[in-house]
Design a protein that fits this description.
The complex is a heterodimer of chains A (376) and B (264). In chain A, helix 2 packs parallel to helix 15. Chain A has 376 residues and is α/β, with parallel strands linked by helices. In chain A, 45% of the residues lie in helices and 16% in strands. In chain A, strand 3, helix 4 and strand 4 form a beta-alpha-beta unit. In chain A, the strands form 2 sheets. A 9-stranded parallel β-sheet of chain A has the order 8-7-4-3-2-1-11-9-10. A two-stranded antiparallel sheet of chain A has the order 5-6. By secondary structure, chain B is α/β, with parallel strands linked by helices. Helices cover 35% and strands 19% of the residues of chain B. Chain B has 10 helices and 8 strands. In chain B, strands 1-2-4-3-5-6-7-8 form an 8-stranded mixed β-sheet, sandwiched between helices. In chain B, helix 2 packs across helix 3. Chain B is globular. The chains are: A alpha/beta (376), B alpha/beta (264).
Chain lengths: 376, 264
C-alpha cells in the first residue's frame, strides 16, 4: 500500500471566537481576518513540509484546492503542482484535484496539467473533482449543471491529451472552435486520473467504468465499501477487473514517539472536522448539485455530520489515526485489510499543529511506517 | 364554477394547468415557489375571467425541460402555450419570475397579449439594493423573508400551516432546481430586458409590496419608467406575495384594471 502526504494549507490565524460569530467559516467569514504576512510564511512552511515528505519516502504528495475558506488556502492546485514539480524529485504529485464543473476553460486546464507533468518529469496524478457547493457559490456556477459540466470538461481535457489538434469542440457547456494545445503531458497517453467520492454513487460508477483510481474521503468503512461496490459495478459494465491499485482511502493521521504526543497533535484535526465544516446545508449542497440518489446516499453516509463528532469519536471511527509508528502501522494495516485499498492518503498537517511536530511525524512515517506498509 | 386540471401538451412537454371561471381568457404565470393552485384571489378573478394557470415546465407536475437555460426560453414556451391552448389574445398576469416571464413575452410579441399585470417581477437589475439570493437560504428561512407578516395572510394555514408530505417536498425541490436552472446567472435578471421594455405599449399594471424583502420595491419604479403605458400600485404592509398576502385587495386591483376594458 502506498502512502501520500497531504496538507490543506490552512490559514487558522485568527481568534476562533471571531469565526464563531458567522454562520460558517466558508463564504461568510470576512477576509479582513486573512493575515498576509502569516500566509506568506505559511506557504513557505507548507511547501518545505511537502519537500521533506518527498525526501522522507512518501509515495505521493497530495494537493487540493478550495476557495473562500480559511480551511484551505491552496487556491490553485496547478500552481502548487508546478512548484512541487520543480522542488521535489521522486514522489508522485497527486492533484485531488481540479474542480472541473467550475472551470470555464478546459483547454487551459489541459495545458496547465500538461506543463506540470512536464516540469515534474511525468509525476502528475491528475485528480478531477466535482467540488463542494462552496466552490459553486464562489465561482457562481449553476449547480444544476454540476455533473454535466464535470463530465464534459473531463471529456474535453481527455480529447486535448489524446487526439491531435487542431479540432473543434461544440458541446452543451463548452465551445471552442480552435483547439490545438501546444503543451502535452510527458506521460502517455496522459497522466493517470483519480477521483474522490464522499456520497455520489454516480461518481463511483463513472470512475469504475473508466478505470480511474477512486478514493472515498473521510467516510465510515461500511460506506467506503458500498461506494467501492458501485465502482465495481461500473467496472463490470465494461469488463474491467478492479485491483487494489484502483482504490484509495483518505484519513487524517499523525505519528510521534509517544502515544501521548501523537494524541496531542492529532487533536488539531478536530478543527478541520468541526468548525471548518460548520455551515448551512445550502453552502455545501446548493439546490440541484446532487442527484436525488446522491442526496439520499449522503444522508445515510453521514447520519451525523463530522462536525458533531468528538475527538474520541473521530479516533474510534478511524477518521483520525494518531499514535506511535507501531500503532499507526497497525491501524493502516487494518484499513488495508478492511477495504483492500492500494493507496492511503494522509491528511497529515492541520492548522495549529506546529512545524517541528509535523516534520517529526513525516520523518517517522518515512523511517518506520512507509517501509512497513509498502508490502501490504 | 369548479376549476379543473388538465395536462396540455406544448412542444412535447406536458403542462399541468388549472383552468376555471368564465369570461375572457386570463393567463396567470406563477413565481419560483411554484403553482399554488386555486387560491383565493384566483377564485375571485375567475368570476369574471376564464383563468388559465399553467405550471411552468420543470415545476410541480409539469414535464421536464432540462434543455431550458433561461427565462427567455420560458417566455417563448408560454407564447407557444397561448397558441396550443387556443387562448387568442389573453390578459397576462405574472408574479415574480412569472412576472419576469410575462415581461419578456410582451417584449417578444406584444400583439399576442392584451393587458399585462406584473406582480413584484424580477428581471431588472435593481438600481438600488439587490435581489435576495433565494438559493442561499433554506425554504423555511426564505418563507419567513418572503411575506411581511404571516399573521395577516388569510390562507397561511392552507398553504403553509402543516409539514409538507414527501411528495410535496419532492415538488418543492424540483421547483427550486428549475428556478436555479432558469435564473442562476445573471441572477434573476436579464441585462438586455430594459432595452426592449419600451416596445411594450400594452396597458400594464405593476403591483408591489412596500415591504418586499426579495425584490426591492424600487424595481417597480424602474419597470414603470421603462414601460410606456404602465401604472405602479404599492401595497402597504405587504411583502413579496401580494396575491397571497392581500388576496381581496389584489383581486380587486386586477379586476378593476382588466374589467373596465372593452377588449375587442
Amino acid at each position: 500500500m502506498k502512502l501520500y502526504y497531504f496538507s490543506e494549507m490552512p490559514h487558522h490565524e485568527f481568534p476562533d471566537e471571531e469565526g464563531d460569530k458567522y454562520p460558517s467559516l466558508r463564504l461568510e467569514f470576512p477576509n479582513r481576518f486573512f493575515d498576509r504576512e502569516k500566509a506568506a510564511a505559511n506557504y513557505q512552511r507548507y511547501l518545505t513540509e511537502y519537500e521533506f515528505a518527498d525526501q522522507a519516502g512518501f509515495d505521493g504528495l497530495m494537493i487540493n484546492e478550495h476557495h473562500s475558506t480559511p480551511s484551505c488556502v491552496n487556491v490553485g492546485v496547478n500552481m502548487t503542482a508546478a512548484v512541487l514539480g520543480r522542488t521535489t524529485r521522486r514522489a508522485k504529485i497527486l492533484l485531488l484535484g481540479n474542480i472541473l464543473p467550475i472551470e470555464d476553460n478546459p483547454v487551459r486546464m489541459a495545458e496547465q496539467l500538461a506543463m506540470a507533468d512536464l516540469i515534474s518529469g511525468g509525476r502528475v496524478l491528475s485528480g478531477f473533482v466535482r467540488g463542494v457547493g462552496v466552490e459553486t457559490w464562489w465561482s457562481n456556477t449553476n449547480p444544476v449543471h454540476n455533473r454535466e459540466r464535470f463530465e464534459e470538461c473531463h471529456d474535453l481535457i481527455l480529447k486535448c491529451w489524446t487526439e491531435p489538434g487542431p479540432f473543434r469542440w461544440e458541446g452543451r457547456h463548452y465551445h471552442f472552435r480552435h483547439v490545438n494545445p501546444w503543451c502535452l503531458p510527458l506521460q502517455k497517453p496522459h497522466p493517470p486520473i483519480w477521483t474522490p467520492g464522499t456520497a455520489s454513487p454516480e461518481t463511483a460508477v463513472w470512475a469504475g467504468r473508466r478505470g480511474y483510481t477512486y478514493v472515498p474521503f473521510l467516510v465510515p468503512f461500511e460506506i467506503a465499501r458500498e461506494l467501492f461496490d458501485y465502482y465495481r459495478q461500473g467496472a463490470a459494465e465494461v469488463g474491467r477487473t478492479v485491483t487494489a491499485d484502483n482504490l484509495g482511502f483518505l484519513i487524517c493521521a499523525v505519528t510521534a514517539e509517544t502515544k501521548a504526543k501523537a494524541l496531542e497533535a492529532g487533536r488539531h484535526f478536530v478543527w478541520r472536522m468541526g468548525p471548518t465544516l460548520r455551515a448551512p446545508t445550502e453552502y455545501f449542497a446548493p439546490v440541484g448539485m446532487r442527484s436525488r440518489a446522491g442526496a439520499q446516499f449522503a444522508l445515510r453516509a453521514r447520519p451525523r455530520s463530522l462536525a458533531t463528532l468528538s475527538y474520541q469519536e473521530l479516533l474510534d471511527g478511524q477518521f483520525i489515526v494518531a499514535g506511535t509508528p507501531d500503532e499507526v502501522i497497525d491501524r493502516f494495516s487494518r484499513i488495508q485489510r478492511e477495504l483492500g485499498v492500494g493507496h492511503l492518503l494522509l491528511e497529515a498537517q492541520e492548522s495549529r499543529m506546529d512545524h517541528p511536530t509535523t516534520m517529526r511525524s513525516i520523518e517517522l512515517m518515512g523511517a518506520k511506517v512507509i517501509p512497513a506498509v509498502a508490502a501490504l | 364554477m369548479r376549476p379543473r386540471e388538465e395536462t396540455i401538451s406544448v412542444g412535447g412537454v406536458g403542462v399541468h394547468t388549472w383552468i376555471g371561471g368564465q369570461g375572457d381568457p386570463l393567463l396567470v404565470l406563477h413565481g419560483a415557489g411554484g403553482n399554488r393552485g386555486w387560491t383565493r384571489w384566483l377564485a375571485q378573478v375567475a368570476e369574471r375571467f376564464t383563468v388559465w394557470a399553467p405550471t411552468h415546465p420543470g415545476f410541480g407536475r409539469s414535464g421536464d425541460a432540462d434543455w431550458m437555460d433561461g427565462i427567455d426560453d420560458l417566455a417563448r414556451f408560454h407564447l407557444w402555450f397561448i397558441d396550443a391552448a387556443g387562448l387568442g389574445r389573453p390578459h397576462l398576469v405574472g408574479h415574480s419570475i412569472g412576472g419576469w416571464t410575462a415581461a419578456e413575452m410582451a417584449t417578444m410579441s406584444p400583439g399576442s397579449i392584451d393587458r399585462l399585470v406584473l406582480v413584484a417581477p424580477v428581471g431588472l437589475k435593481p438600481e438600488k439594493g439587490e435581489i435576495l439570493d433565494v438559493f442561499y437560504y433554506s425554504p423555511p428561512q426564505l418563507l419567513a423573508m418572503t411575506v411581511h407578516d404571516p399573521k395577516t395572510v388569510p390562507e397561511w394555514d392552507e398553504l403553509y400551516g402543516r409539514a409538507p408530505t414527501p411528495a410535496e417536498l419532492e415538488i418543492a425541490t424540483r421547483n427550486r432546481e428549475m428556478a436555479a436552472r432558469l435564473a442562476w446567472k445573471p441572477y434573476m435578471h436579464n441585462p438586455r430586458l430594459a432595452h426592449f421594455l419600451p416596445r411594450v405599449t400594452n396597458p400594464t399594471l405593476i403591483v408591489w409590496g412596500r415591504e418586499d424583502r426579495v425584490v426591492p420595491v424600487e424595481c417597480g419604479e424602474q419597470y414603470r419608467r421603462l414601460l410606456p403605458n404602465a401604472d405602479l400600485t404599492v401595497l402597504e404592509r405587504c411583502g413579496h406575495l401580494p396575491p397571497v398576502e392581500q388576496p381581496e385587495i389584489f383581486a380587486r386591483l386586477v379586476l378593476d384594471f382588466l374589467g373596465g376594458h372593452n377588449r375587442r
